Amino acid sequence: MNKWLEFENCLKNTDEVFFWWRDDDVKARKPKLINLTCLRYQSRLIKMLKLLEKYNISGIFAVIPDNFFKWGHPLIKILKKHNVYISLHGIYHINNSNDNGVSNEFPDGCNVVELTRIISDYQHQFSEIFGNRLLPVFTPPYNNISAKLEESLLAVGFRCISKRNTINTAHNNYNVDIDITDWQTARMRSEDAILDELIQLINSGVHYIGINGHHNCVRKKGFQFLDKFFKLTTQQKNIKWVMPFENTGIFEYHKK
Ligand SMILES: [Zn+2]
């Protein structure tokens, strides 16, 4: 059966499903006279924001704080134009792990006190720019962080650390469930692979699904796929696109 048809049937034959969108790796780049890379990524960010807006879908965009205040002014303008939320995404987005298989900016043994101070300072600076759009959420790069740093960030006011759900842990609505990017090629995965994973998730009883996008890796075909995907899912009565972290208490905390 055609994979789209299979996906549509899966949606039609299930109870309510809630989707939410997390998009990572908004990164400020050093301006150059001719900077095609910078312009390419900016245009992909704008395309993603416009596409979400077309379907009235909000999302959370995870921003790498390093150099953001130095070179990020165009990105601030772009992000502020749209109805999306912001979270910090690491500090430098680098891999400090000695474990070959697991990338982690904040592996066990990292300097928890110093890192908590740096991240809290950035959170404060970002809140002055983005106001209530900045959520008290930290999104570690590679979805990994030392348990001690996680604990420390929660103690200084972050409400959650958004990582990725795994089959080994209980499902958590803070975490994304599926990454649409193929990290071998840094392009979007095949349509069939993404739809297959979604079908499997829904059939296994996961009905609150966080989708992890990376606008930098989405090209023309990817945007066409997402357009079709958003169109189909927003047309189904039993499928709802929710604000990131809706029903998790984050927003109640935020209104105080
Ligand atoms: Zn990232």
Structural write-up:
The structure is a single chain. The chain has 9 helices and 10 strands. It has 256 residues and is an alpha/beta fold. It has one domain (3-255): Alpha-Beta Barrel (TIM Barrel), CATH 3.20.20.370. Strand 1, helix 2 (36-54) and strand 2 (60-63) form a beta-alpha-beta unit. Helix 1 (3-12) packs parallel to helix 7 (191-203) and helix 2 (36-54) runs parallel beside helix 8. The site of zinc ion has 5 residues, from strand 1.
Describe the secondary structure blueprint for this structure.
Blueprint: H1 3-12, E1 17-26, H2 36-54, E2 60-63, H3 68-71, H4 73-80, E3 85-88, H5 112-130, E4 134-138, H6 147-155, E5 160-161, E6 178-179, E7 181-182, E8 187-188, H7 191-203, E9 208-213, H8 220-235, E10 239-241, H9 250-255
Parallel strand pairs: 1-2, 1-9, 1-10, 2-3, 3-4, 4-5, 6-9
Antiparallel strand pairs: 7-8
Helix pairs in contact: 1-7, 2-8, 5-6
The structure holds zinc ion.
The unique ligands bound to this protein are: zinc ion
Give a short account of the largest sheet.
Answer: 8 strands, parallel
Q: What value does the Rg take, in angstroms? A: 18 Å
Residue share in β-strands: 15-25%
Which stretches of 5+ consecutive residues score pLDDT under 50? none
Question: Would you identify the CATH H-level superfamily?
Answer: Glycoside hydrolase/deacetylase
Q: What name is given to the CATH topology?
A: TIM Barrel
Order of helices and strands: HEHEHHEHEHEEEEHEHEH
- Architecture, according to CATH? Alpha-Beta Barrel
Give the mean pLDDT: 93
Helix content: 40-55%
What's the total helix number? 9
* CATH top level label: Alpha Beta
Beta strand count:
10
* Tally of domains: 1
Distance between the termini: 50 Å
